[in-house]
Amino acid sequence: MTVQILRKKFTIGQYHQMIESGILTDRDHVELIQGEIIEKSPVDRHHAACVDRLTELLVLKLFRKALIRVQSPILLSDNSEPQPDLSILQRREDFYHAGHPTPNNIFALVEVSDSTIEFDRDVKVPIYAQEQIPEIWLVNLNNTQIERYHQPIANTYQHRQIFNLEETLNFQAFPDVPIEVHQIFR
């Protein structure tokens, strides 16, 4: 006998109602991924330090060129509102007070991964491709390298490149701004 498990999927509206009514609070470290409320992994010191280094580096290098948001929601569809570690966004005077950034506002996203590497690679990256996010960096803390995905098509990226400590890369939107990989991992 096969048992079929039914899952309740949520929309962005329902998710926000749970936040507004206090069902979900700041203590609930969750994000909405394809209609499911996913608990985020606790952030350890290595992950936090890498996010902080990247934030400082990108703010300095992209000052007045882009807005850097840290671990804040982006609105991808009616059923996905992930919170990437870093979002590199078009600048807006209201700093997105009127609403979370959408794919049209996003230059690139960065996910810092250690224990979540498979989830980020196998679940989040395809969602980002499906939503036409131009570029994703997966900072792989386990292997001390950056996986760069760009040129989305359907639910995948046409190009995936690996960058090691001694290499330099840049965001496609900012080809004149080199980022040395070793600066991210120090």
Break the fold down into its secondary structure elements and pairings.
Layout: H1 12-20, E1 30-33, E2 36-39, H2 45-61, E3 67-70, E4 86-89, E5 106-113, H3 117-130, E6 135-140, E7 145-153, E8 156-163, E9 168-169, E10 179-180, H4 181-185
Parallel strand pairs: 5-6
Antiparallel strand pairs: 1-2, 3-4, 4-5, 6-7, 7-8, 9-10
Quickly describe the structure.
It comes from Acaryochloris marina (strain MBIC 11017). The protein has 186 residues and is of the alpha+beta class.
Could you characterize the architecture of this molecule?
It is a single chain. The protein has 186 residues and is an alpha+beta fold. The protein has a single domain, classed as tt1808, chain A (Alpha-Beta Complex), CATH 3.90.1570. It has 4 helices and 10 strands. The chain has helices spanning 12-20, 45-61, 117-130, 181-185, and strands spanning 30-33, 36-39, 67-70, 86-89, 106-113, 135-140, 145-153, 156-163, 168-169, 179-180. The strands form 3 sheets. It has a 6-stranded mixed β-sheet. A two-stranded antiparallel ribbon has the order 1-2. Strand 5 (106-113), helix 3 and strand 6 (135-140) form a beta-alpha-beta unit. The longest helix is centred in the N-terminal third of the chain and has 17 residues, at 45-61. The model has no long low-confidence stretch (mean pLDDT 95). InterPro entries: Nuclease_put_TT1808, Restrct_endonuc-II-like, Uma2.
